[in-house]
Amino acid sequence: MELYKLSGRTSGGVCLKCRHNTAGRHCHYCKEGYYRDNTKPITHRKACKACDCHPVGASGRTCNQTTGQCPCKDGVTGITCNRCAKG
Asked: Is the pLDDT at 33 greater than 90, yes or no?
C-alpha cells in the first residue's frame, strides 16, 4: 500500500512470480544466469537468453546480464570463452 501512495496512487504492484527468466520487483531484468536480448522487449518470452559460458574456458557460469560476456580465464577469449587468445 505504501508504494501505491508514493506513486501518486497510480502504481505500486510488486510481481511475485516473474516469467521467462526475468527477475526484480517488476520483472524488469533478466535473472542470474541469463542476459538480455535487446532486440526484444523485456516482456517477450525470449528476451532473456541463457548464459552459455564454456565449462573449460570460463572462470564462472554467470555472464554479464547486459552483454552476455562470460568471465574468461587467462589466455581465453570470446563471448562464451571458447577460443584461445592471441599470443
From this structure: yes
